[in-house]
TrEMBL record:
Protein name stated in the entry: FP protein C-terminal domain-containing protein
This protein's UniProt keywords: Coiled coil
The keyword Coiled coil is assigned to this record: yes
Positions in coiled-coil regions: 127-171
């Protein structure tokens, strides 16, 4: 390393004047590195411009300036170096153009990367929101799961309470019978109708055996009211129902009324048990069960005369009919 005498900038390589011994970098020396290398042995006699001008002095008037052969060789070397440098200019220009194109591409890529970065930032923000929402939904699902379990327990408890209530209500009807198919008249006497039915089915009953008697609206037809009769004891009621079932052709004509329809005498079932009886009959028909009947307010089914008797108390018992 040395400091150029002219520009005062440090340089790695340069030339040294053979007279003043001052060092110059190649641009300040006025010679190219290639030209200086081609001087060969003449590099030891190289002079800076200041020493050249001092040794040659000003030319006399009327005389032409002459150059030493060494100077001409140096000039030729510099010209050859410049020519070589100029020959590489097209390649340098192409390289510059390629660099400019690459810079333009880099700028485009930079813009695209900026757009991608913005998109990724948006995606990350969306993913964070989605993760937070999923966590919230998960908490809600856990809450709903717990609520579902609570509802399931309440439903089971309600079913048990409904079953207990239905059993209690059905138990309160153990002394009752329900008569269906008796026409309504304006001057009817229900006690007289029961007495005529008892005579027809061959059973002895008096008004004193009846706790109460009334007509109630039917669920399907409010104009066709069934007769509900409450006996004083269950045994009398059982005998009345059993005798009525033996008489399978009881009609209104048998008790002095108009009509050819059949009169049915059954246990007084609750509304829930009536619905359960209808479902039992429908399913029994599908599964080829031959017998469905009611005894002591209990629904019974049997596939054949040799099959066991099944008791149907709830809808879950319908699974027994297979």
């Amino acid at each position: 390393m040395f400091t150029c005498h002219r520009c005062k900038i440090e340089a790695r390589d340069g030339v040294q004047c053979s007279l003043c011994l001052k060092q110059y970098d190649f641009p300040c020396a006025g010679i190219t590195e290639i030209g200086f290398r081609k001087l060969g042995d003449r590099k030891a006699t190289w002079k800076c411009n200041a020493c050249k001008n001092a040794s040659s002095g000003s030319p006399a008037p009327g005389r032409s300036t002459s150059y030493a052969p060494s100077d001409l060789d140096g000039i030729r070397g510099e010209l050859r170096g410049l020519s070589e440098q100029m020959s590489s200019m097209p390649k340098l220009l192409d390289s510059v153009k390629n660099i400019q194109a690459d810079l333009a591409d880099l700028k485009t890529i930079k813009c695209e990367l900026s757009v991608v970065k913005d998109s990724l930032d948006y995606v990350h923000a969306s993913v964070d929101k989605l993760i937070a929402r999923i966590a919230e939904v998960d908490r809600e699902i856990q809450t709903l799961q717990k609520t579902k379990e609570d509802v399931s327990r309440l439903e089971q408890r309600l079913q048990k309470l409904e079953a207990v209530f239905n059993d209690g209500e059905q138990r309160s009807r153990l002394n009752n019978i329900e008569i269906k198919g008796v026409p309504i008249t304006n001057t009817e006497n229900l006690f007289t109708i029961i007495s005529k039915i008892a005579t027809k089915i061959d059973i002895n009953i008096s008004d004193n055996n009846i706790n109460y008697i009334a007509r109630v609206p039917s669920r399907n037809n409010k104009n066709n009211k069934n007769i509900i009769v409450s006996m004083h004891n269950r045994y009398l009621r059982d005998n009345f129902v059993a005798a009525a079932r033996k008489c399978k052709s009881l009609t209104p004509l048998d008790i002095g009324l108009n009509g050819s329809n059949r009169i049915f005498i059954n246990d007084h079932l609750t509304l829930e048990n009536k619905m359960l009886l209808n479902k039992t009959k429908s399913l029994a028909k599908e599964r080829d069960f031959s017998y469905v009947w009611v005894k002591n307010c209990k629904i019974l089914v049997r596939k054949s005369t040799t099959s066991p008797v099944l008791i149907i108390k709830t809808e879950s018992d319908l699974r027994k009919i297979v």
